[in-house]
Every structure is written in C-alpha cells, then in structure tokens.
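This part of the workshop introduces the protein records we will be handling. A record pairs a protein's sequence with a compact description of its fold. Comparing a sequence with its tokens is the quickest way to learn the format. The record below serves as our worked example for the rest of this section:
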Amino acid sequence: MKISRRKFLTNGSLSIAGTMFLSKNLLAVDKGAKTALGIQLYSVRDDMKKDPLGTLKQIAAMGYKNVEHANYVDRKFYGYSAAEFKNVLNGLGMKMPSGHTVLSDKHWNKATNDFTDAWKQTVEDAAEVGQHYVISPWLDEGLRKDYDGLLAFLEVFNKSGELCKKSGMKFGYHNHDFEFKYSLKDKKIYDIILENTDPAVVIHQIDIGNMYGAGGRALEIFKKYPGRFESMHVKDEIKSAKGEMNDNYESTILGKGILPVREIVDLGKKSGTKEFIIEQESYQGKTPLECSKEDLKVMKSWGY
C-alpha cells in the first residue's frame, strides 16, 4: 500500500512452523465449507469518499455480496452509524463480515490492565454492523524494533481476541511488507506474530500482494502455517516505477500480473480460508470501479 494508505489507516482509527511437506490439514478439502467473496472498499476509496451510497449501489450491481470497510471514524462507517450502515448494506443485499480498524497501544490501559472505551466501542460497533472479524491492519513502527515490546503487544492481540469472542467475533491481523523485511532475534516479524497469537481467538488475514516486494511468498507461508489464515486479500502484482509499498510493485487486475493467484486462492480454500477479499489499489489507466468489476469476473470464473 502507498504511504497515503498508511497515514489513512493511522488517522482513520484512533502454529508452529511447518515442515517441508504439506500437512494433512493443508491437503484436506472440506467440500461443505462455505466461503465468502467480497471487496475491500479501499479499492474504491475516492468513490466512497465522494458518494458512499452511490458507490455501494454500483458495487452491489456488479454482483458483490460482501464488503470490508477501511473507514471507521468517530463510531461511524463512511459517515453512517453501525445500525445505519447495516441497514444500507441489507437494503442492497450485502453484508460486511470484516473490517479494518487499527489497534494501537493507545487502546490498552496498562494501569487498569484493560482496553480503553474507544476500543470497546470499536468491538461493539463491529458486532452491531454484523462483522465476524475485527482486523487490525497495522503495527506501530516502534514495535518492529523492540522484541519484548512486540511480545507484550501480541498479548494485547490475544486479549482483543477474547474481547471479540464475547460478541461472537474474532480479532485478526493484516500484513503489509515490513513483517517480511525486518527481523528481531534472527526471526522475521511475521513469524513472531504467527507464533505468539492464539489461533482460537486471533485469525490472520494474509495479503498476498503486500508481501511480495519484501520477499514474502504466500504459497510458502500457507505451507508453513496451515490453517492459520481464515481471511485473504486477493491481489495480483506488476512491476512499477515506485510501487504501493515503495518496492517497485503495484496491484493490477487479477490474472494479469506475476503472482500465481489462482494457485494461492485454491490452496487457501483447501487449508481453511473462509473469506476472500479482492483489493486493488492501482489501476493502470482504468477506473477503480472498472477494475473491481473485472476482478470479480475473474474470481467467479475460478469458481469463487
């Protein structure tokens, strides 16, 4: 994602390692398992800013049944209260199983050993709007350099999972690129996060595009941590002069780039991914809505 998205995220929201072989869990296909296909509304962020209701109507008309928010400010989703936004989505035949709101250290009161009211309200509103997952898509930069601090904050992740569980939800974490760029005590930050979060209450939303320029390969990660990724951001990538992560790669129409996207989503489905969320952040001359329509067509052609 671009720097603008990082600022947007910050301002917009106050397994053990596997073997070289696939586990039985990874190969087992639950033919009765239901999967949800949706779109991250950051894909159409400018349209949502100008006309959220009109944009949602166009998204629904394309055939999308699920959306994921990237805008929760002052207890409102794109200017709507939780109850209002749920009604809007219901009226369009859509739901919002997940949403992005950054969990930071300001949401945890060390003196009381409890979450702040702001985070409790975040979870409350997520439940009200109908989310299954409350997903934090960021990690404060200071924690990327502080091993003990990171471990302590991952305990807050687990506590957030317990809080979400009370409302029938799970807490989740969404990766960018830095988790693969940086290491602490000779271990990648992403491995530290995976190994110190409780699978019973904390899910991981793997973004298969964000990681690519930093060396992360989704197929390898699925094999290393089978069953850990209940949600996936589906992306494809092409070379770029600058890139969304300042890594010389940017997202493009699914199937048009260099990632083995079809193979990744199929492996994800086999290993327990329940939610597939299309996200495209760069458009190569097309409009975001045009890209969203094409991406959905591709996923449906793959049987999703």
